[in-house]
Structure formats: structure tokens, C-alpha cells
Write a structure and sequence with these properties.
about 15% strand, alpha/beta, elongated, 21 helices, 5-stranded mixed sheet
Length: about 425
């Protein structure tokens, strides 16, 4: 068995740890849990550090529990938030939980008969029948308001960071999360809670509750909140979160995100977000430093994470799609792309809409690219470029400016890719009925 604390230490994945945690992990197989907020039906890469903690935990021989906060998700955690989140109904939560479990199965072994197989638990299962008066009487009396008020997450909200203050609903969050730890400690022999640095206050509330109610062993370990080298929040782009669900973030965009991180970030991220061994990572960093222009580190990082989250086939498609813009490719490469990837690849190029009926009837390339879509400023200029071999349609050189374009030339039934020179692209979109 690998040493979990040592594994996380060299990866830069430990922020705080209760005394005695390392000794416990070296003494026995330990059960630990990490909570995941089910406010969406997909995880995003902001969740990945915590999920990778669970992955490393299992690979080190211990038993991971992924706790989906079906009950606490109905309330909202004030930690790191400036305003109260929207509350979700039960049907939405059940849908979200099912989707998240499917994603977690790519990281954790849930199905084997190994003693440390992962389990998914949902705190809604033990909270849904808990009566308010029973909770106040049996649980609430063990944690003082003074203790709860002292938490940093509560203080920040009370000291002006929140527009609307802190509702009682949110104030009780740490007590509910604390009860999760108590419940799992008593029913699953769970002795360790994992989480992000912003969860330390909630986690220690749970350990305090266990200490006061049954005196059992309990420990805590948190990972740092991952940031970018410029200090900005990791995982956020101008278009929003980078999701693990391909319907929200295509594998191509996902791959490109990792491929384009700065050098210093790549050196940290490849330790946190992959399962590569220390020696191999050190060799990759050394090779990268000898020739940063080759982006060896970013390519390997993007390859590892894309394959882990999606598949090898999706990685190959993402690489092929990248080559369409940045390297040599053929019409066959273009035809392999699904519609979403095609749109993602050419999201930043000029786009023109034309009538599908014009293309179905057959139209000369020069008429299409000048009269119907202003790809070229004049027919004379386009003819000159075509004659010099400088215009391609769907990655094939246009032999003549008056070449006929028909519906058979459309990609995915509605797109034409026009290319001028090596790097100038235009996307023509055929609109109208089939």
C-alpha cells in the first residue's frame, strides 16, 4: 500500500490535517468520505481536486465514500459564497445524483468485491425522516451558537460580504454536515473526512460533534483551493465553468482548456489532476523546461485528464480537431467531427448564413462566397486566389472559382468550411428546411 499522506504531500494536495491522521492511515484500512454538492447534474473541474483525493485514497488501499449532499443541497453552504444559493426540489436532486454517480464511476471502483470498493451515499436518505424537534433536541444541544458563530465562513457573511446577511437555513448547514460525519462514523466506521480548504470549519464541527456524542476516533484532511498562476479562480473561463459532461463542455473544448494552461500551472496541475507517478512527472517537467515551446507538459496533462474524464476515442477526436486548425489535416478528418466539435473548433471564425435552397439547387463557389456570403470582397479577388491555389473548401483545394457547390458538399448537412491560405477560415451555414 502507498502512503496516502506522502502521496498527497508531493502532489501539493494537503492544506490542513488534524494531528494523528497520518498515524491512523498507516495503522489500518480507513474509511473516509468527501461531500459533493449536487446543485447541477454534472461535476465541473472545480470538483476534480476533491475527486482525485478520493481516487488516490482508494489507490492507497483505503475505502472512499462519495457523499452526495441531497439534503444539504436543499439548504446551501455559506462557505465561500457571497449570497444564498437557489434551493432544489427532490426530483431535480435525484436526477443530479444519478448523473454525478455516473461521472464518479470513471474515477473510482464502485463495483468490485474488494474490501475497499467505493460507495455512494446520499445524506437525504438519513435526513429525510429526521423531525425538526428531534434534531434540535438530540443534535443541536451538543454544539453551541458561540462555536458556530466563530467559524470563518459565518463571520465573513456577517461582516458585510453578503448582501442579504446569513439566513437561519444556511446557518444550520454546518450542523447538518457535522451530523453527516457523525452518522457515517457510527454506521460506516468512517473516521476521516476529506474536503477543500474552505470546508475546514464544517468538517471540524463534525469532529466536535463526534467527540461530544460518542467519543470515537475522527480526523480531517483538506486540500488547497486550486487557483491559476494569476490568482484567479481555477476552472472558470469567459464562457463559464469547464464541465465534465460532454453536453455542457465538449471533449474538444475540455482538451483545449488543459492544453492552453500556462507553464507554471501545468507543473502543478499534472501532479493534482493525474495519477502519473512522481518520477515520470519530474521527467516530464525536466523535458518541458529544456524546450518549453513543444508544450510537452500541457500535451501530456491534456491527454491524461481528457482520457480519464471522457475516453481515449474522445481524446483522439480532440487531437484530430486541434490539427484541423493548427496542423495538416484532410477532408476525412473534417468528416469525422460531430456537429458540436465542428462548431467548437470554428467558434471564433467569421460565420455566414445562406439559404439551403440555393445550395440544393447548385451554386457556383464564386457566387456563394461573394454574393450570398461576403467571404471575399470581390469575385475578381476570389478568382485570383483560387488560381494561385489559395482557397480550399472543406480542406480540399478549390480547382476553379465557378466549381458547383451542392448539398452533397455540406458537412453535417449544413456547413461549408472555406479556407484562405493556411490560417484564415470562414464557416458558411445553410439555413432552411430539408
Amino acid at each position: 500500500m502507498k502512503d496516502f499522506v506522502k502521496e498527497l504531500t508531493w502532489r501539493g494536495m494537503i492544506h490542513q490535517m488534524m494531528p494523528g491522521t497520518e498515524e491512523l492511515l498507516n495503522k489500518e484500512q480507513v474509511t473516509a468520505y468527501l461531500g459533493i454538492d449536487p446543485t447541477a447534474d454534472s461535476l465541473h473541474i472545480g470538483h476534480l481536486c476533491g475527486v482525485m483525493m478520493l481516487r488516490h485514497f482508494q489507490r492507497c488501499g483505503h475505502k472512499p465514500l462519495a457523499l452526495i449532499g441531497g439534503a444539504t443541497g436543499m439548504i446551501g453552504d455559506p462557505s465561500g459564497k457571497s449570497q444564498e444559493r437557489n434551493l432544489l426540489d427532490e426530483e431535480t436532486l435525484r436526477h443530479n445524483v444519478a448523473c454525478i454517480k455516473k461521472q464518479l464511476e470513471r474515477f473510482l471502483d464502485f463495483d468490485s468485491d474488494a474490501p475497499n470498493h467505493a460507495e455512494l451515499v446520499n445524506n437525504y436518505d438519513w435526513m429525510k425522516d429526521f423531525k425538526f424537534l428531534d434534531f434540535v433536541r438530540d443534535i443541536g444541544k451538543h454544539i453551541t451558537v458561540n462555536y458556530m458563530m466563530a467559524k470563518e465562513s459565518v463571520q465573513k457573511r456577517l461582516n458585510g460580504e453578503a448582501r442579504d446577511g446569513l439566513s437561519f437555513t444556511e446557518f444550520t448547514y454546518q450542523l447538518l454536515q457535522g451530523y453527516d460525519f457523525l452518522y457515517l462514523n457510527e454506521h460506516k466506521n468512517c473516521k476521516l473526512q476529506l474536503g477543500g480548504a474552505d470546508q475546514w470549519g464544517n468538517i471540524t464541527t463534525g469532529s466536535e460533534l463526534i467527540r461530544r456524542m460518542n467519543g470515537n476516533e475522527c480526523y480531517a484532511l483538506t486540500c488547497p483551493l486550486v487557483t491559476k498562476s494569476d490568482g484567479k479562480k481555477f476552472g472558470k473561463t469567459e464562457s463559464g465553468n469547464i464541465w465534465l459532461d460532454r453536453n455542457y463542455t465538449s471533449p474538444y473544448v475540455f482538451y483545449q482548456f488543459w492544453l492552453n494552461v500556462p507553464d507554471e500551472d501545468a507543473k502543478r496541475y499534472i501532479k493534482i489532476f493525474t495519477s502519473l507517478e512522481e518520477e515520470e512527472i519530474n521527467d516530464l517537467i525536466a523535458a518541458h523546461d529544456t524546450d518549453p515551446g513543444r508544450r510537452i507538459l500541457q500535451k501530456r496533462l491534456a491527454e491524461e485528464v481528457t482520457t480519464m474524464v471522457h475516453s481515449r476515442e474522445d481524446l483522439d477526436m480532440a487531437i484530430e480537431a486541434s490539427n484541423i486548425l493548427f496542423g495538416k489535416s484532410t477532408k476525412e478528418s473534417l468528416l469525422k467531427l460531430d456537429e458540436q466539435t465542428l462548431l467548437d473548433v470554428f467558434a471564433g471564425v467569421p460565420q455566414f448564413e445562406v439559404s439551403r435552397a440555393d445550395i440544393e439547387a447548385g451554386i457556383k463557389a464564386v457566387d456563394l462566397c461573394v454574393d450570398k456570403a461576403a467571404v471575399f470582397p470581390s469575385k475578381g479577388e476570389m478568382k485570383t486566389l483560387v488560381k494561385g491555389g489559395g482557397v480550399s473548401l472543406n480542406k480540399e483545394k478549390l480547382a476553379q472559382a465557378d466549381q458547383m457547390i451542392t448539398a452533397n458538399d455540406l458537412l453535417d448537412g449544413k456547413y461549408l468550411l472555406v479556407q484562405q491560405g493556411k490560417k484564415k477560415y470562414f464557416l458558411i451555414i445553410a439555413k432552411g428546411g430539408f
